[in-house]
Amino acid sequence: MASGRGEIKLCGVTAFGAALSPNASYHRRVSVPDIVSLLARNPLFAMLDRAALEGLSAQLGWFCLPGGRPLFEPGEPADALYLLKSGSLGVFAGDDGAHPGEPLHLVTAGECVGEISLLGGSARNRGVRALRDSELLRLDRAAFEALVGRYPQAMLGITRTALARLLQREREHEPPGNPRTFALLPVDASVPARALAMRLAKALEPYGSCAVIDAGHGAGRGSDWFAEREAQRHFVIYLDADSDPAWRQRCLRQADVLLLPAQAAQPARPWPEVAPHRPELARHRPRHLLLLHAGHGASLGAAQRWRAQFEGELRHHHLCNDADIERLARLIGGHGRGLVLAGGGARGLAHLGALRALHEAGRVFDAVGGTSIGAIIGAGVAAGWSTDEVAERCVRAFVAGRPLSDWTLPLVALTRGHRAALMLRRAFGALDIEDLRLPFFCVSTSLSGDGMMVHRHGPLWLWLRASSAIPGVLPPVLHHGHVFIDGALMNNLPTDVMAADGIAHLTALDVRADIILQAGVEEFATPPLWRLLWQRRHDVHRPGLVSTLVRAAMVNSEDASAERRARADLLLTPPLEHIGVLDWKDWRRAVDAGYRHALEVLEAQARTGA
């Protein structure tokens, strides 16, 4: 076997790796009724009758795979398919044993893995490893071919499942499946972990039944007991409320996701066990830092202090009240609601009207992202400002503040950019992106060879300034040797970024539709000044310098715009042809257009039940 998994023989069954735990028993046989029930629920084998399922069960070998161990790696022979009895597996791109690569898919209990390669007779082209301690049933190639020969109808179910998997692979940024088990591991006894677990379980209930298992329930239990509880409930929270080291390790082994709560105001310190701050031992499971705040708002700097204790991928959440717990439940349970706002200059103020209509309809959002003015307005939403406050601040900044009025000798850009930066610093102060109430990102374009950049950390005002740096109008942001300009060049409606974060339901506001420059004169060179003045007096239309630069900044991202719009579950594109991209004085018309359009779309959606 590859990967150094350490093949051993137990009770005539091939098992790989070390024991799941001191409580796990390898000397039992999985009962035939249990296997038959598991097979009957799987699409690959659902077409077989009970006699065939019982015959198939005799061909399956049971084994365990400890969390972090590879099941197989790219390039290995496709010699078997596997049915996951308990635990969870991750499918990775580019897994070479030492480095798993990018996670592509989560395999949960009851699902199969490896059937595509087996069906095609090819080598493995993906790596699969256990994310936590898992039990599997193996069907060797010879038994598989005998099954197909004896029961041809089984091939239909296998082919359907294989085709579904292949179609899934073709989708860009397909998010992994939804996790079902969570380990709640507080940093110390000061965290009200039990109360937090109960509140979180209650918030998860609308999406499926949830059980909380602590040391009193689970200590001394074998893996079968945990597998049974996980099969009975849609979600399971494994809670360490008493700092019991043995139970804490069990929680780590059982969980698809690690939830790491701490009192935000306390001094930051490492977690007791190794895994949370050593990503290679976290077994590639998502880690969520939960920052509990005593007041109604997030403490500035708390997220950065606590995040500094970790390495690798980590998400954090500010928890101040029950609404934040409900948001956390939606995000970790696979029901998150994302808001994506496009750039578009003055037309972006239509976002304000659309947001008011969405608020009146009771829509809430769990994560926000955007580009250019969409990022600026979205940052206000993520900061927890009310809809009226977002509108008031944006109108004051863009209309009264006139951020593009500090004209200068155009050596780098037409404006100095000082007024725009000052406007953003006044609006958002010392906030870092990590301090925002909701998860937030904004998009810029790096001219230093990196292309699209997604900003989730650092000074909020700085990256908003970079995201809105229209080439030729505002000077670029120069930071750590890199040059950043408007994100609209690469991605003006970043629904793909939000979808890659695993957000299930996307609302997108695209206000850039039909920004088309037209001319009322035939020419290939700028005419003399006297003719320009004469044409202006006679309303001869030609695009201005700033409008040309703004439009040019958006052309490059148009090819993918249709696909990015299609990702949205609710897409709002208010008609804004009557408003220019720099017509800030028409802000009321933009806001009204956004509001009316959103109402129409929401009413149509309510009528159709979509």
Secondary structure: elements and pairs:
Elements: E1 7-10, E2 13-16, H1 32-40, H2 50-57, E3 61-65, E4 70-72, E5 80-86, E6 88-93, E7 102-108, E8 112-113, H3 115-120, E9 127-130, E10 134-140, H4 141-150, H5 153-170, E11 181-184, H6 193-204, E12 210-213, H7 215-218, H8 223-232, E13 235-239, H9 245-254, E14 257-263, E15 287-292, H10 302-307, E16 315-319, H11 322-332, E17 337-341, H12 350-360, E18 367-371, H13 373-382, H14 387-400, H15 418-428, E19 440-446, E20 451-455, H16 460-467, E21 477-479, E22 482-486, H17 495-500, E23 505-509, H18 529-537, H19 545-555, H20 561-566, E24 570-572, H21 587-608
Parallel strand pairs: 11-13, 11-14, 12-13, 14-15, 15-16, 17-18, 17-23, 18-19, 23-24
Antiparallel strand pairs: 1-2, 3-10, 4-9, 5-8, 5-10, 6-7, 6-9, 19-20, 19-22, 21-22
Helix pairs in contact: 1-2, 6-11, 12-14, 12-21, 15-16
